[in-house]
Design goal:
heterodimer, A: about 110 residues, mainly alpha, Helix Hairpins, 4 helices, B: about 450 residues, globular
Chain lengths: ~110, ~450
């Protein structure tokens, strides 16, 4: 069987990854619910992962796929910290709406 | 390489000591451990080596930058002894987090592979998110942690996407092979796009225009010692990593890329220095001052390979002066709710030595002669003039004159107001004073003979 990547073309993968990345970026900029913002960050990181895997197959080089494992571990650690901070916020103000955090101004 | 292993074992050892209830020994032992790591690091001074398939490289410049990071961590851990007095049962967490942060900084400057760079950056950032939000019951600290987390992960996403695009263009994460591929083969368009995305992420991390807006809020909300770490160690590490990447990638970028960087520097300098003028919270003031210093350090990126000793000198001067200034700020604000400039009223009457220390540190940042900050700026500006960046240098000079105003403002508050609260009692604190004086002495020494640092390269 012909390589699926060659049938579809690397360009399509790049467009899809860029689209996902933009969805994630706009999610962070426009949504005000912290959980949704965390999900948007995950979408951004996963867009990069998709791109890495696609390029890895394209170049026939395993490095990209190994990097994806590192990225997934990092993303998991990052979200764990984020949720911990969110729990602390919820205990203090009883809400996870980012707009309620307006104590710091200069 | 042995430095990295030593630091990692030190961080784990601290956590083990906690289990055996040896909390009293943690800080002294960490300080000794850091000195050992510094010794191991300096042993590599003349070697050029690479480890684990070129993941970690060791050469003269990485050794020097790492030594600076270790010295900064040494000071920060020493300050932690007093800072965490009231929550001393958690000292192992705070101290080991700082060592992990140092490991992140180490990886960010010693990488030979973009994977290692990304991991180092994330280790540094994740520990900083924890430290920024570490005052759990304080809503301001929560907010700072959250803002820093969201902005930082957003930036990490950009950097990761940039790395993915660069990998797509060059088929490798290895810096040497990227240099080889980018100079010899015709690169697809997404190579430039990839580096631009990395640039966006890095500008976020070093808090330069147009991605500087998180810095004042995060600096203000975080616990004071975390602010110290962010504005010295984290900033210096991020700039050093940015510099190392720029040396690799700039030759392959379009020629007008230099103009973009020059514009960013001018904007960063203007925004940082103008906004600092109207701050009355010392943490926010230091945040904007940090933004403007990021602008000065970015000038080295403009200048390329020849500016490395000057960048290192500037970083040392800035970070050491920052440590000195922040330890005095810690001394003054140790039991205040907010860190306002008016809290410094009449401080010179109570503690003349510390007041002079803070003044010298701030004057060094402003760039007054004899102090190290002046020579840092002088070297960078001369080099920039040699390479013909006139507008950047003119803006830099004008804005550094403006910056004197807000530094002097703090000094005037300390020395002229006589009617300090008569009942203000400054708690005696040996550690803060010792670190402040030690840091300012280092600053004066490298100010008197800059060649100590410059000749190392």
């Amino acid at each position: 069987m012909e390589n699926v990547l060659q049938q579809i073309g690397i360009d399509q993968y790049i467009y899809l990854a860029i689209l996902l990345f933009c969805i994630g970026a706009f999610g962070i900029l426009y949504r005000r619910n912290a959980i949704v913002m965390f999900m948007s960050i995950e979408i951004m990181l996963n867009a990069a992962n998709l791109l890495l895997v696609a390029f890895s197959t394209y170049h026939e080089d395993a490095n990209g796929q190994v990097f994806v494992f590192f990225t997934m571990a990092v993303a998991a650690a990052e979200v764990a910290i984020g949720l911990a901070i969110l729990v602390a916020i919820y205990r203090n103000i009883g809400s996870i709406d980012i707009d309620k955090l307006k104590k710091l101004k200069g | 390489m042995s430095t990295l292993i030593a630091l990692a074992s030190l961080a784990v050892l601290i956590l083990v000591l906690e289990i055996f209830n040896l909390r009293k020994t943690i800080v002294p032992l960490t300080l000794v451990g850091l000195l050992v790591a510094l010794g191991l690091n300096i042993c590599d001074f003349n070697s050029i080596d690479s480890f684990y398939n070129n993941m970690i490289v060791v050469n003269k410049s990485t050794v020097l930058f790492n030594s600076l990071f270790i010295v900064l961590t040494f000071f920060i851990v020493a300050l932690g002894q007093s800072f965490y007095k009231e929550q001393y049962d958690k000292i192992s967490d705070y101290t080991s987090l700082k060592i992990f942060l140092l490991i992140g900084a180490y990886c960010m400057i010693s990488f030979g592979n973009l994977v290692m760079f990304f991991l180092g950056l994330e280790i540094l950032s994740i520990t900083l998110y924890i430290l920024a939000g570490s005052d759990r019951t304080n809503i301001k600290s929560n907010e700072a942690g959250m803002k820093y987390f969201l902005m930082g992960s957003f930036a990490s996403g950009f950097i990761l996407f940039g790395i993915a695009l660069i990998y797509g263009a060059t088929a490798s994460f290895d810096l040497d092979q990227i240099v080889l591929a980018s100079t010899q083969l015709a690169m697809p368009k997404w190579f430039t796009v990839g580096f631009t995305l990395m640039l966006v992420g890095l500008l976020f991390k070093i808090a330069a225009f147009p991605f500087h807006f998180w810095a004042p809020d995060v600096y203000q909300g975080s616990p004071l010692l975390t602010t110290t770490t962010m504005s010295t160690l984290a900033k210096v590490a991020a700039v050093a990593a940015f510099y190392k990447l720029s040396v690799v990638f700039f030759p392959a970028m379009p020629t007008n890329f230099v103009n973009l960087i020059a514009f960013l520097i001018v904007a960063t300098l203007i925004i940082g220095n103008i906004m600092a003028l109207k701050q009355n919270n010392i943490k926010r003031l230091m945040a904007y001052s940090g933004i403007s210093h990021a602008g000065f350090m970015l000038m080295a990126i403009l200048l390329g390979k020849t500016a490395e000793p000057y960048l290192f000198y500037y970083m040392t001067a800035y970070a050491i002066a920052g440590i000195a200034a922040f330890s005095v700020i810690l001394y003054v604000c140790q039991d205040k709710k907010e860190e306002l400039v008016i809290h410094f009223r009449g401080f010179a009457k109570h503690k003349p030595v510390l007041a002079v220390t803070l003044s010298l540190a701030l004057l060094s940042m402003a760039g007054i002669p004899i102090l190290a900050g002046f020579f840092g700026k002088l070297f960078l500006f001369t080099e920039a003039l040699k390479q013909g960046f006139y507008i950047t240098v003119i803006t830099a000079v004008i804005t550094s004159i403006i910056s004197i105003y807000y530094y002097i403002k703090v000094i005037i508050v300390m020395f002229t107001y006589k009617n300090a609260d008569a009942n203000t009692v400054y708690q005696k604190n040996f550690m803060y004073s010792a670190v402040a004086v030690a840091a300012i002495i280092i600053n004066l020494v490298i100010g008197f003979c800059p060649s100590i640092i410059i000749d190392l390269f």
